[in-house]
Amino acid sequence: MAGPGDTWLTGSDGAIIDGVDKLELGRFLRLHRERLTPATVGLPADGPRRTPGLRREEVAQLAHISTQYYTRLEQARGPHPSRRVLAALGRALRLNDAERAHLHSLSGQPAEPPGPSAEVPDRILDLIERMPDTAAIVLDAKYDVLAWNPLAAALLEDFSAQPRRERNMIRRYFLHPDRARRHYGMTGGDFGSFAVGHLRAAAARYPDDPATQDLVRELLRLSPEFAAMWPSTEVSAQRHLTKTVDHPQLGPITLGCDILVVPERDQHVVLFTAAPGTPAQEALRLLSVIGLQQLG
Description:
Blueprint: E1 16-17, E2 20-21, H1 22-34, H2 56-63, H3 67-74, H4 83-92, H5 97-106, H6 122-129, E3 135-139, E4 145-148, H7 150-155, H8 169-175, H9 177-183, H10 190-205, H11 210-222, H12 224-229, E5 240-247, E6 251-262, E7 267-273, H13 279-290
Antiparallel strand pairs: 1-2, 3-4, 3-7, 5-6, 6-7
Helix pairs in contact: 2-3, 2-4, 4-5, 8-9
C-alpha cells in the first residue's frame, strides 16, 4: 500500500499511475489509429482489413518503436512514455497541436518543455522534402539543427553523423570558426552580431532551459569574440542574404539564403537556392544526384 511519501497514485480503476491515465491514453491511441488509413500515411494497402484504420505494427513502424511496446500502451499496460516517444506517436498518428497537447496531458507531462521546441511540424518536414532543388534546414530558437533534406546534407554536412551537441550553428560559428565560416557560408561579422543578439533574445525567452543557458555560458567561457559582443543590446533580423558555401569538392558555391519563421514552434527554416542558369544551380543539381557520395 502507498505511504504518505509516495509520489504515485492509483485510481479506482488502477489505471492512473505517476500522472499517467493509462486507460484513457490507450483509448486515445486506438481512436486515432483507427481513423487513419494506409494511404493517409503513405503505406501500401494490402487487401481488406478486419478492423478500420492502421494496424498496431504500422503505427509502431511509423513511430520507430517496437510493436510490443506500442501494443502495451494501447492495452494500458505500458511503461511511462518518454517525451521523445510521445513526439514520435504524435507524428505517426498525424495529431494536430491540440491533440498533441492532450496526448502529453494523458501521459502526465506538459506539452511543451521549458526550452525551445525540438518537434518540427509535419507540414514543415513535408515541405523541405518536396524541395529537391533547394537545400533546407530547420533550426530551433537557439539554432540547433533539427531537420534537413538530402540536398542540405550534401551541401553543408551529414548532420546525422554529428552528435546532437555539435549541430548548433552558433556554437559552430564561434568555437569552430574555420570550418563553419567557410563551409557554411558564415563569412564576415554580420552573422556573429546577429547570432549574439538572437541567442540573447532566446535566453531571455527561455530562462529556465538548461540547454540554452549552458550554451551561453560555454560561449562566454570559450570564445573571447562572443564574450566581447555579448554586452551589446543590438538584436538584428536576417531574412534574405547571399552566402558563399565553400564545398570541399565543388569549391565556392554562391547561393541565395532565405529564412522563414515557424512562429508557433519558435523555429526557423533556412533555404539555400541558386539563380537559374548559374554555375551554382549546376552545382546543386550535381549534389542532388551524388548526395553524400564522394566525387571521383
